[in-house]
Design a protein that fits this description.
Helices cover 37% and strands 13% of the residues. It is an alpha/beta fold. Strand 15 and strand 16 form a beta hairpin.
């Protein structure tokens, strides 16, 4: 029987927890929200350790002092997940609080979604949730969008910097516009400086006057790597990190194209540094407006790192091992536990219900969400919890040119299923986050249990089928070929076979190059369609 003293103690504890949760929004009934969303940033690419127990969970070369300050007054997440191992499905998922699988857009170029003519303008976005809270939120999105057809202005954002329809009109932030392929000015690499300018101006305009939500979606640190000469020069004089080599220090005009696009770590560090300066400028602007303590700042990435190694995690971008899915994440804001590391698994589809909760939105949440509010976790770290409407974190990836897998994480366990062979893998991520020890054979009951949950989820969402993806890709290539042949026929018909022989030869060369590329793409489909590989690029025939 519970004693009176015990009852009083339990009531006091419950009251304290209630108070700590509600102090998350105590500074204001309408806090501000900022998301800094980087492109391809790995979990170990900043100077902030995502795991205290792992020295390699931070960089020994890249410098992010402003992120360090953010982490000191906020929370680091050791088990933060992007929605997908590639950018576009993550950028859709984060907006709508649903997995890419549920949204039916699972890869950066989703042939099935394109074939079916799917759109997402009627989905409720993070911006919509805040604007419907009754607090007159101003909303802005700067930088890389969702691709496909939707503009950010169509899903609730008042202010955007979109250029052309398509992949936000700017691909990886390399061009003034996508149609002309006009390169960006040299003084604005990866649009980092223009993104800094627009975001600071937006905060200056609204902070302290109107609650706001701003998402800064960086093109950095995606290839091709581009950075300011002064920051590159700075890193020439920084003590060399473990993974740097002599060739990383070549002058810019001597760097081979392949290295510039993939492995030149001075450029990479310089990009990370400049984005960090953007964070510092935003913090300074919020301080000046007296709004720093009333603003949630979330710093994270759209998929695992493209620059390997990814610290203690295996593989990286485009793979469903932890290095492709886990991302750095730091959060600071009203009531967020300071200087803490949270090990509870969280996913970016949790952001929408979190914003709904923290803004005090009185309306019901949208239907069929996959995420849950992180309010309790923000306040209490590992003592908190996340209540989601679905069990586990599901990553469905029926990709046509990489290993097609479905993955579910429930608690400490991660179950992986190959969509072609039906083979399975099982890992205990608490003890084996590098995924070295496959437990599938020694834990058949756990395997069966997780397989059942995964299968039920995929059936519920009518998940994309990988064989349908292969068929759609081949149909797409047939369409591209027919289009290329028609363009050649139409343009060459306008020319004189004798007088314009050179122009016709150029057109024929372009057609032949395109046909060769399409055939190579078909070969890749054929190879992958019969492959049993789990990670890496397409296998050899």
């Amino acid at each position: 029987m519970m004693t009176l003293a015990t009852c009083i103690q339990k009531f006091a504890t419950a009251s304290l927890l209630f108070f700590s949760l509600n102090c998350v929004v105590a500074a204001s009934s309408a806090p501000n929200f900022i998301i800094m969303y980087l492109d391809d940033l790995g979990g170990a690419d900043t100077s902030v350790p995502m795991m205290d127990s792992e020295p390699e969970s931070k960089s020994d070369f890249n410098q992010t002092p402003h992120l360090e300050e953010l982490a000191a007054r906020g929370m680091r997440f050791s088990n933060a997940y992007a929605p997908a191992p590639t950018c576009t499905p993550s950028r859709k998922s984060i907006q709508f609080g649903k997995t890419p699988g549920r949204l039916q857009y699972t890869f950066v170029h989703d042939v099935l979604a394109l074939k079916r003519g799917l759109t997402w303008v009627d989905e409720t976005s993070m911006a919509d949730v805040l604007k419907e809270s009754g607090h007159n939120y101003a909303t802005a999105h700067f930088g890389k969008g969702m691709a496909a057809k939707e503009r950010m202005s169509e899903i609730g954002y008042d202010v955007t910097d979109e250029y052309d329809i398509g992949p936000n009109g700017n691909f990886h932030g390399d061009y003034v516009d996508i149609k002309s392929r006009t390169k960006l000015p040299a003084d604005d690499p990866k649009r980092m400086r223009s993104l800094n300018k627009r975001s600071v101006e937006f905060v200056r305009e609204h902070a302290g006057k109107q609650p706001f939500f701003m998402m800064i979606s960086h093109y950095a640190v995606h290839v091709p790597h581009e950075a300011s000469p002064e920051l590159i020069e700075k890193y020439r004089h920084v003590p060399r990190g473990k993974y740097l080599k002599d060739e990383d220090y070549l002058p810019n005009n001597q760097i081979p194209a392949g290295m510039k696009n993939s492995y030149w770590r001075l450029q990479y560090a310089a990009m990370i540094d400049e984005v960090d300066q953007n964070l510092g400028n935003l913090v300074a602007e919020l301080k000046a407006a007296g709004q720093l303590e009333n603003t949630y700042i979330i710093y994270t990435s759209d998929n695992g790192g493209g620059m390997r190694p990814n610290g203690p995690l295996g593989w990286g971008k485009a793979q469903l091992y932890e290095g492709g899915l886990r991302v750095p994440m730091v959060v600071a804001g009203p009531g967020v536990k300071a200087g803490a590391q949270c090990d509870i698994p969280v996913a970016q589809w949790d952001f929408l219900p979190t914003f709904h909760d923290l803004s005090g939105n009185p309306n019901p949440l949208p239907e069929n969400l996959d995420g849950g509010s992180l309010r309790s976790v923000f306040a209490s770290g590992n003592e908190g919890s996340v209540e989601r409407p679905v069990e586990g974190l599901v990553f469905h990836y029926p990709c046509y040119f990489a290993p097609p897998l479905s993955v579910i994480r429930i608690g400490d366990y991660k179950y992986m299923k190959h969509l072609l062979t039906g083979e399975t893998q099982l890992y205990n991520l608490k003890n084996d986050y590098a995924e070295k020890q496959d437990l599938a054979r020694v834990m058949p009951e756990k395997l069966a249990e997780m397989d059942k949950v995964l299968a039920q989820y995929l059936e519920e969402i009518d998940a994309e089928d990988v064989q349908d993806a292969y068929v759609a890709r081949l149909e797409e290539l047939d369409h591209f070929e027919a289009q290329a042949r028609e363009i050649f026929r139409r343009e060459s018909a306008r020319l004189d076979p004798v007088a314009d022989a050179a122009k016709i030869a150029q057109l024929k060369k372009r057609l032949d190059d395109n046909l060769a590329r399409f055939e190579k793409n078909r070969d890749e489909v054929a190879v992958n369609r019969t492959s049993s590989h789990w990670a890496g690029g397409p296998p050899n025939k």
